[in-house]
Amino acid sequence: MAREPARPPPARREPHQTGVIQTLRRLAAGLLVLAFVSAVTGADTVSEVLPPKPGEVRVVALGDSVTSGSNCDCAAFPQLYGDLLHNRSAVPVTVDNQGVAGLDSTGLLQELDQRNSLVEQTAKAANVVLLTIGANDFGDHHDDVTSGQCTGDCVSDEYEQLTANLGRILSRVHALRGDLPTTILMTGYWNVFKDGDVAKQQYTPSGRIASDQLTVRTNNAIAAAARADDATYVDIYTPFEDSADITALLASDGDHPDAAGHALIARLLLAATPNPLPTSPRQGG
C-alpha cells in the first residue's frame, strides 16, 4: 500500500521526533547489514539438528518420491516405520523424512556433500538411516525402456554411475556419523517405472519385460552396495511382485505406493531392523 507524503512535525516536538528518526535510521542500517550477512551465509546455515539422547532413536529417510510419499494422501513409510519401531522398542523415535520427488543418486550425493544442509545435518544426527534411491537415474530412458526399444546397453552409463554413487553415498553417511553406531537400511524397488494395471495400459509387453529387467539389475546394484558396506538390503521387489494384486499396493499413477504399499514397506523395514539396535559402529545387519 502506498504511503501518504510525510507531514512536518509540530515545532514543539521536533527534538523528540528527530531523535526517533535518527534511532530508526540506525536500526534500519543495522537491519540492512544483518540482511546482507544473512544473504551471504544463509545458504550454508541451518538450525542445528540435535542427535538422539541416550535411549532415543533418530531416523532419517533419504530418497526420492517413494520416500517422500508422492501421490498418496497418506502417511509415507518412514513415519509408519518410526511408529512401528517405537511400538517395538518402547523408546522415543524421531523421524526426519528428507525424501525429494525426482531425486537421483547424484542429487542425493550433492545434498549430503553440501555443508550444513538439512540433509547433511539430519544424516549426521540419525542412528537409523533409510535409503531409497536409484530409480530416477534412468528417467531419461523411460520411453526407450518401456517401449521395448532399449537393451541393457542404453542405460550402461547410468548404471555405472549409480553403482559408483551408491558407494559414495554410504561413505559420506559414515563420514558424517564418525564412530557412532549406525543402522543403514537400503531398499530396492518393485519397479523403477510404473507397474500394475497402469503399466499394462501404457507399456508394450516387451517394455514391461525390459522395465522389470532394469529393476532387477538396479536392485542387484543396491544389494551389492549394501553388502560391501555392512548395510542391510531390504527386498521390496519380491513382496510387491508376489502379492495377490500389485495394483492394490500402488497409487492411481501406478508409479508410487498407496497407503497399503507404504504400510508394507514399513513392515519390511522393521523386520530388517536389528533388535536391539547395534551399539558398535558400521553395523547394519
Structure description:
By secondary structure, this protein is of the alpha/beta class. The chain has a single domain (58-272), classed as SGNH hydrolase (Rossmann fold, 3-Layer(aba) Sandwich). The chain is 49% helix and 9% strand. It has 11 helices and 5 strands; from the N terminus they run αβααβααβααβααβαα. Strands 2-1-3-4-5 form a 5-stranded parallel β-sheet, sandwiched between helices. Helix 3 (77-89) packs across helix 11 (259-272), helix 4 (105-113) runs parallel beside helix 7 (156-177) and helix 7 (156-177) runs parallel beside helix 9 (205-229). The radius of gyration is 25 Å and the shape is globular. 39% of the residues are buried.
Furnish the topology, listing elements before pairings:
Elements: H1 14-41, E1 57-63, H2 65-68, H3 77-89, E2 93-97, H4 105-113, H5 118-125, E3 128-132, H6 142-146, H7 156-177, E4 183-187, H8 196-202, H9 205-229, E5 232-234, H10 237-241, H11 259-272
Parallel strand pairs: 1-2, 1-3, 3-4, 4-5
Helix pairs in contact: 3-11, 4-7, 7-9
Domain SGNH hydrolase-type esterase: 61-264
Protein name: SGNH/GDSL hydrolase family protein
InterPro entries: Ester_Hydrolysis_Enzymes, SGNH_hydro, SGNH_hydro_sf
Distance between the termini: 61 Å
Kindly report the spatial arrangement of strands forming the biggest sheet. 2-1-3-4-5
How would you name the CATH homologous superfamily? SGNH hydrolase
- Specify the biggest β-sheet: 5 strands, parallel
Order of helices and strands: HEHHEHHEHHEHHEHH
